[in-house]
Amino acid sequence: MSAVSRSSHATEAAESRPNVLIIVGDDMGYGDVGFHGCKDIPTPNLDALAASGVRFNNGYVTGPYCSPTRAGLLTGRSKQRFGHEFNPGGNGQGLPLRETTLADRLQKAGHKTALVGKWHLGNAPEQRPMRRGFQEFFGFLGGSHSYFDAQGILRGDQPAGKVDYTTDDFAKEVDAIIEKKRKDPWNLYLAFNAEHTPMHATEDRLKKFASITDPQRRKYAAMMSAMDDAIGSVKEALKATGQETRTLVGFISDNGGPTMEGVTVNGSDNTPLRGSKRTTLEGGVRVPFLLSWPGMIPPGVDERPVIQLDLHATALAACQIRVEPEWKLDGIDLMPYITGK
């Protein structure tokens, strides 16, 4: 086979693969979505995403706080395999450079890759997203950030400049990438900082929840509503560009809501679960967990336990990427179980 033929074959193979969109909420309460029975915070777009695919009522993450969960999601490996059981501090701490990310693997297979939102896997230059498989990055490096302040918001490695409200800005960025890359298979990691502290909300959304008397819960509701609006915008961008049926979408929260005294509470509610972020009780590690792929995943509710590591393995299988034994992945491809095949 000539070099030209090999190149053409590789291009055709990449084009036949689905897009992969992984969305992560931050410090969400298990009971704070409509599909889990929430009454005071409408989440119509998340509910529609749940209705379009599989809702896993027993979805789990491998860590009760932010960074270990994200490290497991991106590597497909349990955090104990590479010493990432805790949130990184300074001094070069972060996701070890020997680890390979989902973006690394999908980019190698021909996907365009981008991260929008929160990183929290290392601040050192060699640990940043653009050196970990992502061709584009718009967001921040640490574990939390102001929703209104542009300082620390980067585009690639450079200051991004003005921001309005990060949740809205992240949605606009993803919408633009979806439009720009509509002819290419892509991998987008949309990692919200909503609803992590600080509790920052826009005035129009606060007014929408004026009936909630607890001021902290009111801010949390406004922040949840902003994230739900953002997800609705992204879903509309997929539909408008004709990419809805060729995009695998996964959604999780990185851990349960912080509800216990002694941690930075945000007004979330883990009902009916016991426990909180930073605990390994159900309220700390059992999270909203969705998987959608119209035409490929039949809608329904699945009570079997799944974990965020499975999203990595499922994405690789959907994109026809062979998992090598030496990768030592800990998740499994969920598609055979979802489809019954």
Helices, by number, come to 10
Major beta sheet, strand line-up? 7-6-5-4-8-1-9-11-2-12
Helical proportion, percent range: 25-40%
Q: How many runs of DSSP E, i.e. beta strands?
A: 13
Summarize the main sheet: 10 strands, mixed
Order of helices and strands: HEHEEHHEEEEHEHHEHEEEEHH
Radius of gyration: 19 Å
Shape: globular
Strand content: 15-25%
Low-confidence stretches: 2-12
Quaternary: single chain
Structural class designation: alpha/beta
Your description of this structure?
The protein contains 10 helices and 13 strands. It has 341 residues and is an alpha/beta fold. The longest helix has 26 residues, at 215-240.
Concise description?
The protein is an alpha/beta fold.
Looking at this protein, list some descriptive labels.
13 strands, single chain, disordered N terminus, 15% strand, 341 residues, 10-stranded mixed beta sheet, alpha/beta
How would the blueprint of this fold be written?
Elements (H helix, E strand, L loop, with lengths): L2 H13 L3 E7 L18 H9 L1 E3 L2 E2 L5 H10 L26 H7 L3 E7 L17 E5 L13 E2 L2 E2 L6 H15 L5 E6 L11 H6 L6 H26 L6 E7 L28 H4 E2 L1 E4 L7 E3 L3 E2 L1 H10 L16 H5 L2
Parallel strand pairs: 1-8, 1-9, 2-12, 3-13, 4-5, 4-8
Antiparallel strand pairs: 2-11, 3-10, 5-6, 6-7, 9-11
Helix pairs in contact: 3-9, 5-7
